[in-house]
Amino acid sequence: MTQGPYIVTGASKGIGRAIAQEIAKQGYPVIALARASEELDSIGGELALLHSKSMALACDLSNSNDIEAAATHICSHFPWIAGLVHNAGTIIPVQPLDQVPIPLWSASIQVNLVGVQDLTQRLMVNMGGSHQTRITTISSGAALSPVESWSAYCVSKAGLDMWARCIALEGIPLNISAISIAPGIVDTDMQLTIRSVNPEDFPRHPDFVSLYTSGQLTQSRDVAVQLYPLILNHSMEQSGQRFDVREL
Question: Least C-beta-crowded within 10 Å: which of 37, 75, 85, 87?
Fold first, then answer.
């Protein structure tokens, strides 16, 4: 059987980019999905050097047409998909519940949760069967603990954890597994965004500035090295579980 690809969303930067690189180094073709950018073009070139069937596809998870086009392209080129890493996400909006504009709140849920379901559903026809397909969602501590002014992010990440458990259950007869992994506090553009918001909108702003200035943030490459064995090798018996990178 031809080796199937791993699809990584949010692969142009940060954790997603590092995960895509580590998976490709293990000999898998990788399809990098993210919004169109020079960074996406560059990771596509890097991955193609590691595996000739790797590629980058522009896909904005807030746009259902983008999701449909990417899924159609993938399914037409690969009869079987080895795995899917749902890494893309947004922290915006960071505002109190009683002030946040509903369109911004809804857009966050679309990217962090609805887009995950949409993309996966369109790809499932080429998943599982005689060989296990492994789905991994990148979770957050915010899925378990509420954070002021992060309501959309907290809700979507909590929903994503449950989504992984649901697909794990329904995936048993299909030979499709799903796990979620919390990566810890990583030095990414999301952290930069958090530090850049109006402190009046975010009571914990000083805490996140301190994490950065005191050097407590981990690096994307280090996190990816810890995560990729579980992404590539988790068993059907582990399906439905939530992991924390700090406990691996």
Answer: 37
**105-116 pLDDT, tens per residue?**
999 999 999 999
Cα gap 155→166, rounded to integer Å: 16
Show the domains of the chain with their CATH numbers. 6-184+227-241 (3.40.50.720)
Q: How many CB atoms lie within 10 A of CB 200?
A: 10
Q: Which residues neighbour 148 within 8 Å (Cβ) at sequence distance 6 or greater?
A: 96, 202, 203, 204
Residues forming a β-bridge with 56: 32
Distance CA 124, CA 171 (A): 10
| pLDDT tens sequence across 91-142 | 999 999 999 999 999 999 999 999 999 999 999 999 999 999 999 999 999 9
Global pTM value: 0.96
Write the DSSP assignment of 107-167 as a string of letters: HHHIIIIIHHHHHHHHHGGGB-TTS-EEEEEE--GGGTS--TT-HHHHHHHHHHHHHHHHH
Partners of 134 in beta bridges: 83, 177
Catalytic annotation, residues: 153
CA 116 – CA 178 distance, rounded (Å): 13
